[in-house]
Amino acid sequence: MAKRAGKTIHKLEGMAKDTLQMVKAGKSPYLQVPTRTLANVRFNEKSRLIELKGDRQKRFFFNVGQAKKFMQTFLVADACKELIESGKTTSIRDLYYMTKHTLGETRQNTFEEQDESDPIIEDLEVTIDALREELHLFASNKGSMVGEITIVDDGNVIDCRRMGSGGWSVPSIVEDEIIQFRKCDAKFVLLVEKDAVWRRLNEDKFWKRHKCIMLHGQGQPPRGVRRLCRRMTQELKLPLYVLVDNDPWGFYIYSVVKQGSINLAYESMRMAVPDARFIGLSSFDKEKYSIPDNVIIRMRDEDNSRAKQMLGYPWFQRKEWQREITQMIKTGVKLELEALSRRGISFITEEYLPRKLRDRDWLA
Amino acid sequence: MAAKALKNKVKPVAKAKPAKQLSLLSAERSAPPPKSVKLKAVEAPPPPPPEPESAPEPPKRRATAEQMASKQREISISEFFTKNRHLLGFDSPSKALLTAVKEAVDNSLDACEEAGILPDVTVEIKEAGPDRFVMAVEDNGPGIVKAQIPKIFGKLLYGSKFHRLKQSRGQQGIGISAAAMYGQLTTGKPIVVTSKTGKGRAAHHFEIQIDTRKNAPVVAKDDELEIPKDHGTRVEIEMEADYRNGKRWLLRYLEQTALANPHCRLEYRRPDEEALVFPRVAETPPREAVEIKPHPHGVELGQLILKLKETSARDVRGCLMHEFSRVSPTVAAEILKAARIHGGTKPKVVANDVKMAEALHRAIQATKIMSPPTNCLSPIGEELIHKGLVSFLAVTQELAQAEEQEQLELQAQAGRGKRKEEAAKRLEEIKQRLTQSAQEPKEEGEEIVAGHKFFITSVTRPPRVYRGNPFQIEVGLAYGGPLPGDRPVELYRFANRVPLLFQRGACGVTEAVLRTDWRNYELSQPKGSLPVGPMILFVHIASVWVPFTSESKEAVAHYPEILGEIRLAAQECGRRLAAFVRRRKSAEYELQRRSIFELYIDEIAGSMKKLIGVDPARVKQDFGKLANKITGGGMTDAVLKQASEKIAKRPRTAEREMEG
C-alpha cells in the first residue's frame, strides 16, 4: 500500500518537475496527454482488448485554449497528492469542490462545473499512468452483488449468501488491498444489466440453485463492478455470463465488459473480460422461447444506425455476432429482459436461464 | 419673393399680414370673416376668400356686411406676434431666454462671418429680480450703422437676409426684434443696444421700444459712448424668464454652437456659477458663402410669376437668364421652345396669362439644367468638425469631471470611514489617469480628452441639390471615453451651424440616422431606434435654404436627397468606427490574454509548491519571463480567437455517460 502510494506521489511530482524544467530552459511548457478518442484506440486481436495507441496530445500552457486545462491538471494533481499523503480517499465530486475556487479578483473559477473537472481527472490518470484508486479517488457506489462467495471488504467479512434482497453494494475501488476473496462455491458469475431483473433472480434464489455469483451494474456497469468481474474470472477462474436487453445498447454493454471502452481504453487490461459470454437476450430468442409479438419494441432510427455501426467493430467480426446483429436489423425489433415475464413471472429463473446454460446457448 | 414667403412661413404668419406685406395677395383680400379677427385669419385658407359664415340658413341675421365692415381693420405684424408669441419660440418663460440668446448669437455670428471677423461672443445672464433676467450678448462684429439700429431691433420683419439666397443662420428678420418685443411685453423695459463700427468712432447707445400697433421703433434714449473695443455690438434685453428650468437648454445650445463654430470663441457668464469658456479652435473664419440666384428647378409657379412681374429684363428670355442661375442662352431657348413662348414676349404678358405662365413653369421643370453653383455653401469641414468635437468633449468632460472631483474632495475631507477612503482612492485614480493617459500611445483617429480616450472621425460629403437648392451634409462622431455605453447615442443636429434642440422625432436628420443600419458598425441598435453605444453623433446640413418643417426652425423636412446624403455620410463614419472598434477589441483581447496567464501562473505556482516544495515566487518569476516572451506577439490571431470562450464541452460526453 505504502509502496504504491509512494510510486504515485513520485509520478505526480515528476509531472511538476518536468514542467519546471521546461520553463527554466525557456521552453513553452506542455503536458503530454494520451488522447482518448476512437482514432487513438485499437483492438488488439491477440489479447482481445481495446487498447490505447501511442498518440499523445501536447497540452501547452501558453495556448489560450489549453492554458486553463493545464492549470486545472496541476490543481487536481496537488489535491491528489494531499489525499494520498493523508491516506484518505474521496469522491470525484468532492475533489471538484476541493479544487474549486475563484481566480484572483475575477469572477472566474478554477472549475465552473464538475463536468470540467471529471475529464481533467481522467487526463491526469493517463498522463502520469496512474489508476484512479491510486490517486485515492472513487466514484459513487453503483451495482450490487449476491451469491455463493464470502469476501473481505476493508477488513469486514461479508457473506454474500446472506445479503437479503438488496445485495452487497459494490464500491468503486475493489483492489485486493480492500477486497479479498474467501470461500467461494460458485461455478460462474452472472452480470445482469438491470437491477430489476437481478432482484427477480435474487428473490427466486437463482444463485443458490445454480451455484453462482450475481451482479448488476444499473445499466452500463461502473468501474468497480467491471474490475470485480475481471478479478473473479482471473483469480477464481470462473466464467462470466452477461445478461442484457436485446438492443444495440445491451450489446454495447456486453462489448464494454468484454474488451473495454474507448474512453477508458487505458484500463482495459484491468477491467475487460475477453472471455465474457453473452447469454441473452439473443435476437433469435423470440422464436426460441415463443415470446409473443405484443411485447416487442420497434427499433428507432438511432438504434438502427448504432446497430449498423456495431457491424463494423473489429470485435464483432465473428460470424455468429454478425448473424446476431444482422438479425436484429432485419427484424427491426428489440426486446427487453422484462419481456420474458410475459411467459410467467419466474420464467427467466425457471426456464430461460437454465435452458440457455444447459444448451450452452451463448456467444463469446 | 412673396411666394417664397408664403412657402416658408408658417401658414398663419403668411396669412395674417397680407394687407401690408404681400401685395400679391392684397388684391384678393375681401370681406374677411367677422368677430375674432386673429382667430379666423389663422384658419381661413387664402386663395378663395371664404364667405362670411352664412352657410346654415335658419338662424336670424345678427349683423349686416356694413356693420361688420366697420370692425374690420388691418392687423399689425407686431400685434399679431404679441398675441402669438409661441410661434417665435417665446411660449414659456423657460424657453424665452434660450430663444433670445439664440437669436442674438445667430445674428452676431452671421455678421462676423459676413465681415470676415473671427467672432468673439460673450453671453451673459444676470438675475434682475424674481423671475426676471437680463440677457446680454456682446460680439466683436462689424457693428451697425446708427440709422439702422432702431429698425433692426425695433421693427419686426426687417433685415437683410430674407431676400437673398445665401447660407446664413437667420433668415426672416423676426428673431431679435421679437425678443425685444417679448422683453418689453413682460417687463416694460426697452432693448438696450450699443454698437461701434470702427476704431476712433463713438459707440452708439440706444434704448428702443417697439410701437406694436405700427410695428415701428420708438427710440427712448440715444447716446454716444466711448468703449475700448474697436468694433462690435452689445444687446441687452430684460425679460421675464425661468432660468432654473431653462438653463439646461441654454447650456446645450451654447455648447453645440461652439461645436459647430470652431472659429468662434464663446464665453458664457452664468448667474451663481463660474463662467464657461469655449476656446477658439480654428484660426481662420469659414469660407464666405456666396449669394446665388435661385435655380429654375426650385422655383414654384407663384414665385415665377412674381419674378416675371418684377424683372427689369425686357423680354422673357432675358428674365430667365437674368433672374435665375444656370440659364444660358441655349437653355433659355430650349425652355421657351418647349413652352411654345416667343423669347421676345414681354415678361408682364406671361405673368398675367396664367396658362402661359403654367406652360413656362412646366417647360422649366422638363428641361435639363445644370446643377446650381455650390460656392454658396460654407461647410465646416472634416478637420474642423474633428477639432470642434475634441474641444467640445474637453469642455463638457472637464465640467463633469470637475463636479465629480468636487464631490469627492468634499467626501474625502468631511466624510467618514469607508466612504472617505473610497473617495480619496477615486481622486487618486482620476489624477493618475490624467497624467498617465497623456503618455499613452494613440491610435489613428484616437484623441485623449480630459484623460479619456475617444475615437473621433468626420465626413464632409460633396454638395448636392434638392429642388434646385444646393446643400451639403457633414457627419462626425466621437466614440468611447466615459460616455454611457448602454444608452442611445447623443444625436446633435445642426442646420447652417445652428443647433437644432427640439422636435428631434419630427426631424429628417433623425430619420436618416435611424434608417442607417448601425449594427454593421459594432453598435447595437434596437429596431426603429437610435443606435446604442458610447457615442456622440454630429450631423450638419448646410444649405442656402434649409427646409425646416416649421417656423420655429427645429426640424428638417424629409427630402429623400437630404436623407440619402446623411446616410451615406453616416455610413462612412460608421465604417471607420467599426474598423477602430475591432482594432481595439483585439488589443484588449491581447491584454486579457496576458492577464489570464498571470492568473493561471499564480495557481500553478501554488500547486507547484505543494507538489515539489519550490518557492512560488521563483516559479512565478520563471513563468512570467516566458509569458512576456510569448505574448509579445508570436501567437496568431486564430489561436487568440478561441480564447475567453468558455471551455467547450467535450464531444465525448455521450460516451462518458455510457461509462457511468
Secondary structure: helix percent of chain A? 40-55%
Number of helices of chain A: 13
What proportion strand of chain A?
15-25%
Number of strands of chain A: 17
User: Roughly what percent helix of chain B?
Assistant: 40-55%
Instruction: Tell me which CATH architecture of the largest domain in chain A applies here.
Output: 3-Layer(aba) Sandwich
What does this structure look like?
The complex is a heterodimer of chains A (364) and B (660). Helices cover 42% and strands 18% of the residues of chain A. Chain A is built from 13 helices and 17 strands. In chain A, strands 10-7-13-12-14-15 form a six-stranded mixed beta sheet, sandwiched between helices. A three-stranded antiparallel beta sheet of chain A has the order 9-8-11, with no helix packed on it. A two-stranded antiparallel sheet of chain A has the order 1-4. In chain A, helix 2 crosses helix 4 (114-128), helix 3 (92-99) crosses helix 4 (114-128) and helix 11 runs antiparallel to helix 12 (319-331). Chain A is globular. Chain A starts with a helix and ends in a 6-residue tail after the last helix. The model of chain A has no long low-confidence stretch (mean pLDDT 89). Chain B is of the alpha+beta class and 660 residues long. Chain B is 45% helix and 16% strand. Chain B has helices spanning 2-8, 11-16, 18-21, 23-26, 37-43, 65-71, 77-83, 93-115, 149-154, 175-187, 243-260, 301-310, 316-323, 329-339, 347-352, 354-366, 382-414, 417-439, 508-515, 560-612, 616-631, 637-641, 653-659, and strands spanning 120-129, 132-138, 191-196, 203-211, 216-225, 232-240, 265-269, 276-278, 446-449, 452-460, 464-466, 469-480, 490-495, 498-500, 535-543. In chain B, strand 13 (490-495) and strand 14 form a beta hairpin. In chain B, helix 8 (93-115) runs antiparallel to helix 10 (175-187) and helix 13 packs across helix 14. Chain B is globular, with a radius of gyration of 32 Å. Residues 1-46 and 633-660 of chain B have low confidence and may be disordered. Chains A and B meet through helix 1, helix 2 and helix 4 of A and helix 20, helix 21 and helix 23 of B.
